[in-house]
Amino acid sequence: MHLKRQKVPKNWPIPRQGTAYVVRPNFNLGGGIPILVVIRDMMKIAQNRKEVKKAIHEKNILLNNKPVTDEKNSASLFDTITIVPSKKYYRVELSKNRKFQLSEIKENESYYKILKIINKKILKGKKVQLNLIDGRNFVSDVDCKVNDSVLINFKDKKIEKCLALKEKAKIVIIAGKHAGEKGIINKLDLERKMAEVIINENKVHVLIKQLIVTE
Fold first, then answer.
1. In this predicted model, what pLDDT tens digit does every residue of 166-184 receive, in sequence order?
2. In terms of CB atoms within 10 Å, which of 24, 44, 64, 209 comes out highest?
3. pLDDT tens digits for 41-60?
4. Which CATH number fits domain 170-213: 3.40.1030.10, 2.30.30.30, 1.10.3210.10, 3.40.980.10?
5. How many CA atoms lie within 13 A of 72 on its CB side?
């Protein structure tokens, strides 16, 4: 399956002009971007789909510390991408114009990802399952609430710590007109599900569902 180029999500940093179709990710259309587009169009380290598929076959591309298996695999916000031959490491972020961008990181940073908790379930034996924004589920005894974030360690396959939704917490806005901007929570109104956030000394009001705690 392919997407008409004119219909690609607005957060994909590719031109609307060009070939009629682009690859459709196999997961998370609105919240991710296919590895093919990342490697060929954003990084420009492959010229075409054939070269990307060859790199995948040779296990030269890692997504969150695991070999990519398909060029349609979707990279979502805060995912890490490793280019094995060049030993280069990147994190998927949002730019201030609300488009996906790649920031180069160090190797030890590539083992970690911040994820927002969108739901909690109590399982048998009173175990707690955390449902995370990218579709992952973790059974954990970490004391966290919905809308907090967790720092995942891919190397050890565990939650390192909880990042609480609270005043003075650092956040990034992931949706709405301020998407891509970073700030600090000044006030929380849990009843209205709103946060007053300071961005470059300006106060803006953001829905809690539109932000992720990062620190």
1. 999 999 999 888 999 999 9
2. 64
3. 899 999 999 999 999 999 99
4. 2.30.30.30
5. 11
Question: Structural domain boundaries of the chain?
Answer: 2-105, 111-163, 170-213
Which structure tokens are listed for 154?
A: 């891919």
Beta pairing class for 74-76 and 21-23? unpaired
Vertex 35: Cα angle to 29 and 41 (nearest 5):
100
Domain 2-105 part of CATH 3.40.50.150: no
Q: Does 9 have pLDDT greater than 70?
A: no
Per-residue pLDDT reduced to its tens digit, 111-152: 999 999 999 998 888 888 999 998 889 888 888 999 999 999
99: tokens are 């488009």
Q: What is the DSSP letter of 98?
A: S
CB atoms under 10 Å from CB of 213, counted, come to 23
What is the architecture, at CATH level 2, of domain 111-163?
Beta Barrel (2.40)
